[in-house]
Structures are given as structure tokens and as C-alpha cells.
UniProtKB/TrEMBL annotation:
Biased composition (Basic and acidic residues): 97-114
The R3H domain, residue ranges: 20-83
Classification via Pfam families: R3H
InterPro entries in alphabetical order: R3H_dom, R3H_dom_sf, R3H_sperm-antigen, SPAG7
Protein name: SPAG7 protein
MF terms (GO), sorted A to Z: nucleic acid binding
Species of origin: Chaetorhynchus papuensis (pygmy drongo)
Length: 185
């Protein structure tokens, strides 16, 4: 047990040193990024959750904006942006989808959204469409029954005049309701 505790303590100290070294390395990379004038953003290699949190902390201390992108834990990476080149919502959405940011494509999407909004406004100005089915049900079945067959069938049908009336001869029980109730009592 004491041997195992010593081993655990040694591993914890080693992890702590690795985190400190990683933080120093990230601080150096972020300072190089800040000094690079032509670079508005920098993408870092995929890293684990703890390393990403350290990098986000370093970026925040340096006054930068940082975001994590990627689906799997193994493929998540951090992008750091300078404040003057902060990303737009469309740019962030593109990175979240795993696409490369293209300003021309974003402008085209924006134009398409505006066009769709204008068309929707035009629809609203025209007013509501009258309620009802878009077509007549008879047209749907015309190929099956024809146009005159249904009319001819409707003319030949006759209503059953004795509907609901059962002749006494067809009844099984000839007792009246009162007789049946007396027997039950």
C-alpha cells in the first residue's frame, strides 16, 4: 500500500509538471501569434479536454477570443482569434460544421436568405390561401371509375325501405319485454 501511494504521488507530480510545461509552451505559441501581424487566427492541433481548457485560459489572459471545434473528443481542436478579427456567427457555424470559412460563400448564403425573406413577405402580402383541398377527389379516381360510371351507379341504387324493421317471423324470441322481465324476476 505505501509503495502504491508513492507511485500514485509520483504520477500526480509528473502530470502536474506536464501541465505546467504545456501551459508554458502554449503561452509561447500565443505570444508568437500575437506578434505575427498577418495572422488573424490560429488553429491548434487536436488535444484533450484538459489541454484545451489550459489553452482557453491562456488565450483569455492574453486578451484573445478562443473557440473549440470538432465532433469527437480525439478530433476537437482550438482556434484562437485576435480581438480585432473576431469571427462572425456565420464563420463560427462553418467551423462547427467542419467546413473551411469562405467569405464569398457566406455572402452568397446571406443573399439567398434575404431573397427567401423577401419571397415570404410577398406571400404574406398576397393574403391567406382559401381553405380546401388542392384538387377534387373525383379527379383522383377518374382513371378507375370513369366520369359517367359513378353517376349511373348512383341512379340505379335504391334505398332499402324496410331498413331497421325486422319482421316478427325472423325474431327468435317472441316474448314481449314485460314477459322477459317477469321471468328474470
Amino acid at each position: 500500500a505505501p509503495e502504491q501511494a508513492a507511485r500514485m504521488k509520483k504520477l500526480q507530480e509528473q502530470e502536474k509538471r506536464q501541465k505546467v510545461e504545456f501551459r508554458k509552451r502554449m503561452e509561447q505559441e500565443v505570444s508568437q501569434f500575437i506578434q505575427a501581424t498577418g495572422e488573424p487566427r490560429r488553429r491548434f492541433q487536436p488535444m484533450n479536454k484538459i489541454e484545451r481548457s489550459i489553452l482557453h485560459d491562456v488565450a483569455e489572459v492574453a486578451g484573445l477570443t478562443s473557440f473549440s471545434f470538432g465532433d469527437d473528443e480525439d478530433s476537437r481542436y482550438v482556434m484562437v482569434f485576435k480581438k480585432e478579427f473576431a469571427p462572425s456567427d456565420e464563420e463560427l457555424d462553418a467551423y462547427r460544421r467542419g467546413e473551411e470559412w469562405d467569405p464569398a460563400r457566406a455572402e452568397e448564403r446571406r443573399r439567398l436568405r434575404e431573397l427567401a425573406a423577401q419571397q415570404e413577405e410577398a406571400e404574406l402580402e398576397r393574403g391567406p390561401t382559401p381553405p380546401g383541398p388542392p384538387n377534387d377527389y373525383k379527379d383522383k379516381y377518374r382513371h378507375l371509375i370513369g366520369s359517367d360510371a359513378a353517376k349511373a351507379a348512383a341512379r340505379t341504387m335504391e334505398a332499402n325501405k324496410a331498413y331497421g324493421c325486422v319482421p316478427v317471423a325472423n325474431k327468435r324470441d317472441t316474448r314481449s319485454i314485460e314477459e322477459a322481465m317477469n321471468e328474470i324476476r
